[in-house]
Amino acid sequence: MTSKTWFLYIIECADGSLYTGIAVDVEARYTAHCNGTGARYTRSHPPARLLGFEPHPDRSSASKAEYRIKRLSPAEKRKYAATLQGKP
Asked: Is the predicted pLDDT of residue 55 greater than 70, yes or no?
């Protein structure tokens, strides 16, 4: 079995809040958020832009990173987002 690469991503919403998530296909997931078919949070806080993303070897690793990032303050999340490898 070949494991897929998972990505952690951070979105800045129109109201300035940040959303952190994981996905196999970041572009498709971001499009879903923009179309209102992504997470419940981004339905009420429309995405303004994708701040960045980073690869993880498997879902478990990406989920652990997501949990860690979600515990950061908004300022810490923005600082972390500035270091992400993937940029739109």
From this structure: yes
Residue 1 reports pLDDT greater than 80? no
Q: How many CA atoms lie within 13 A of 50 on its CB side?
A: 22
- CATH number for position 34: 3.40.1440.10
* Closest listed residue to residue 84, CA positions, set 54, 60, 55, 56: 54
Q: Is residue 1 part of a domain?
A: no
Q: Is 72 exposed, middle or buried (0-12, 13-18, 19+ CB in 10 A)?
A: middle
Exposure string (b/e) for 33-71, b if CB count within 10 Å is 16 or more? beeeebeeebeebebeebbbbbebeeeebbeebbeebee
pTM confidence score: 0.92
